């Protein structure tokens, strides 16, 4: 059981490596990998596909700054965030706008696992946990 | 002036609106007190993580694709997909004198219904043990109040002495007696004028025990007036394994505070067998490879890193540990017992047969040892009890042979008679520790043959009568023994005179 899981993870990692071109994720290569999996049907193909999807999703998230905001956000602000995140992480990061009224005011930027919280709701939550 | 204030306010506003960085992940699965988490790419080993809803966890498995965390607290509110964030902190528990007299859980939260704990400091639960340079050899005694132990298997401050035996042989009783004795000594010492007196504070860690047993222990300590010098860390059987795994480390952190601040502390881990079982459960759920008896490979390190935290520090205080191990059918060669025996500085082995014969505490003199030896004894005890262990060992050997033959020479018979009286003399009821000065007086009587003329089965009553006699009528003499801690000619003469006086009054 453990060995099968290990094989699944290894295969998924190999597919993930094949999906990048000089360290950058390539849509063409991902399509190629998917075609290969469909044609050859490796053992535990469902589990491999799920593991592969998780790796791809993590990689995509690392290259995106998802900007959640309660009020309006201008294009220049989004561009500024993308620039500063690109500098901070040393890889290209694009910003995506996502309105979220529950933040009350301010912004929340998510890049991969990191969350930069400067929203009112986030500050209220941290205040509530500190009390 | 107002512009200056405005500038400061702007600066404050800037700072307060600064974005806070958090590293997050999402729960993939949660079961049996363990959560598997996606993300948390910055998490450190043993770091505390915060779950949505306030529950906390500790990151124990850092894998390529996921993080395995033990959850402390209520896991019923957690579900797949919930956000988890790192805290950048190690798990800490409150420490200090404010915890004395209180019962807390593995996280230091009060469980005795006496309100919040008055503690201003906190110590990390996991801490690297003191190194070689800062340590000092064990040389100050820690009296248990149990005659068989103080005279033959002495324990020193900073020592780790294992209490090992089958179920129902009186392991916890020895530990509780020791705690009660510390409280009695503290009361006498703190009321006295000796400025150099160092009280011993106790920590009792209950791991995987029934709640009723913990309540009984607390009641015994309270009845003896020892609870005010004691902290109880409770991780009962109903608690999740993560809390049972953490409780001894939390207790050690509380004890370390006393040690670091120039005080002496005693910690009882009751018991480490259940602790190892709780850790095995966590490890198996975390899918760590299992070894002998399904314990994980690092089960030795689990206990060695805990017990190494007990020490006597140069220029500071000490932390003495009394770990307890439960054996099955007296098998001391099982995995966990041998591990802990090799880590500790000696063991007190309790035998079921002795217990059933009515010899209580059921200490097996042959198998029990203190590697610190007489360095942790006062001179008076050495003077009156130095040869006891040898005599008792000889008695056991002769008694075994005497079963097969009826004709015994006078010397052998005398040795057997003396041995039988020593065994009787060491019988002691639970929760009634004997002060060291009284122990010296009784052993002096034994050494001088005061009990030789008394029938063996009446020795217990005679010893009790002697204790009452000395406690009520020879208080000054006992105080002199306590302060001098050694028997000179003058003191020996006074003791002999007191013995003669008691002998005259004892009607047996």
Give the tags.
A: 131 residues; alpha+beta; four-stranded mixed β-sheet; B: 508 residues; alpha/beta; six-stranded antiparallel beta barrel; 16 helices; 16 strands; elongated
Explain the overall architecture:
The complex is a heterodimer of chains A (131) and B (508). By secondary structure, chain A is of the alpha+beta class. Chain A has 5 helices and 6 strands; from the N terminus they run H-E-E-H-H-E-H-E-E-E-H. Chain A has a 4-stranded mixed beta sheet with strand order 4-3-5-6. In chain A, a hairpin with a 2-residue loop joins strand 5 (107-111) and strand 6 (114-117). In chain A, helix 1 crosses helix 3. Chain A is elongated and about 50 Å long. Helices cover 40% and strands 19% of the residues of chain B. Chain B has 16 helices and 16 strands. In chain B, strands 8-12-11-13-14-10-15-16 form an 8-stranded mixed beta sheet, sandwiched between helices. A 6-stranded antiparallel barrel of chain B has the order 1-2-5-4-3-6. In chain B, a hairpin with a 4-residue loop joins strand 3 (47-51) and strand 4. The longest helix of chain B has 21 residues, at 171-191. Chain B is elongated. The termini of chain B are far apart. The interface between A and B is medium-sized, with 17 and 19 residues. Strand 6 (114-117) of chain A pairs antiparallel with strand 1 (20-31) of chain B, so a sheet runs across the interface.
């Amino acid at each position: 059981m453990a060995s099968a899981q290990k094989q699944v993870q290894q295969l998924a990692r190999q597919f993930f490596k094949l999906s990048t071109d000089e360290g950058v994720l390539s849509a063409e290569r991902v399509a190629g990998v998917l075609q290969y999996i469909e044609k050859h049907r490796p053992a535990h193909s469902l589990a491999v596909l799920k593991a592969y999807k998780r790796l791809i999703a993590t990689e995509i998230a690392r290259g995106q700054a998802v900007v959640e905001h309660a009020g309006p956000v201008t294009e220049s602000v989004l561009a500024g965030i993308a620039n500063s995140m690109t500098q901070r992480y040393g890889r290209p990061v694009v910003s995506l706008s996502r309105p979220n009224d529950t933040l009350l005011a301010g912004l929340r930027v998510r890049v991969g696992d990191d969350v930069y919280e400067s929203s009112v709701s986030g500050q209220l939550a941290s205040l509530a946990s500190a009390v | 002036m107002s512009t200056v204030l405005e500038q400061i306010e702007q600066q404050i506003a800037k700072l307060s609106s600064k974005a806070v960085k958090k590293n997050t992940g999402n729960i993939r699965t949660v079961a049996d007190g363990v959560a598997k988490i996606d993300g948390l790419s910055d998490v450190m080993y043993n770091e505390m993580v915060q779950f949505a809803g306030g529950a906390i966890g500790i990151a124990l498995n850092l894998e390529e694709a996921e993080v395995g965390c033990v959850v402390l607290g209520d896991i019923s509110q957690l579900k797949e997909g919930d956000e988890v964030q790192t805290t950048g902190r190690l798990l800490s528990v409150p420490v200090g004198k404010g915890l004395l007299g209180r019962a807390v859980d593995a996280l230091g939260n009060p469980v005795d219904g006496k309100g919040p704990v008055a503690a201003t400091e906190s110590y990390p639960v996991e801490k690297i043990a003191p190194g070689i340079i800062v340590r000092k050899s064990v040389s100050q005694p820690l009296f248990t109040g149990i005659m068989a132990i103080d005279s033959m298997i002495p324990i020193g401050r900073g020592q780790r002495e294992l209490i090992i035996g089958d179920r129902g042989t009186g392991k916890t009783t020895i530990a509780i007696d020791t705690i009660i004795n510390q409280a009695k000594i503290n009361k006498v010492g703190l009321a006295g004028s000796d400025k150099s007196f160092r009280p011993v504070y106790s920590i009792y860690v209950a791991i995987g025990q029934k709640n009723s047993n913990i309540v009984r222990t607390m009641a015994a300590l309270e009845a003896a007036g020892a609870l005010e010098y004691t902290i109880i860390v409770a991780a009962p059987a109903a608690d999740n394994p993560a809390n049972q795994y953490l409780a001894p480390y939390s207790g050690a952190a509380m004890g370390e505070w006393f040690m670091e601040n120039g005080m002496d502390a005693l910690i009882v881990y009751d018991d480490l067998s259940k602790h190892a079982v709780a850790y095995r459960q966590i490890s198996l759920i975390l899918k760590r490879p299992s070894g002998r008896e399904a314990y994980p490979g690092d089960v030795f390190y689990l206990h060695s890193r805990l017990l190494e935290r007990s020490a006597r520090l140069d220029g500071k205080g000490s932390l003495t540990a009394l770990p307890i191990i439960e054996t099955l059918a007296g098998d001391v060669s099982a995995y966990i017992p041998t591990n802990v025996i090799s880590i500790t500085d000696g063991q007190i082995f309790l035998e079921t047969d002795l217990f059933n014969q009515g010899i209580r505490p059921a200490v097996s003199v042959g198998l029990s040892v203190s590697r610190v030896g007489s360095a942790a004894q006062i001179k008076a005890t050495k003077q009156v009890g130095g040869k006891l262990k040898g005599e008792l060992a000889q008695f056991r050997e002769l008694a075994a042979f005497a079963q097969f033959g009826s004709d015994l020479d006078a010397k052998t018979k005398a040795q057997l008679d003396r041995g039988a009286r020593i065994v009787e003399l060491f019988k002691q009821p639970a929760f009634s520790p004997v002060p060291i000065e009284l122990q010296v007086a009784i052993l002096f009587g034994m050494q001088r043959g005061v009990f030789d003329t008394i029938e063996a089965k009446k020795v217990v009553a005679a010893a009790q009568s002697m204790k009452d006699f000395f406690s009520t009528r020879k208080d000054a003499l006992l105080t002199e023994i306590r302060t001098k801690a050694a028997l000179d000619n003058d003191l020996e003469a006074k003791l002999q005179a007191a013995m003669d006086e008691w002998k005259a009054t004892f009607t047996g």
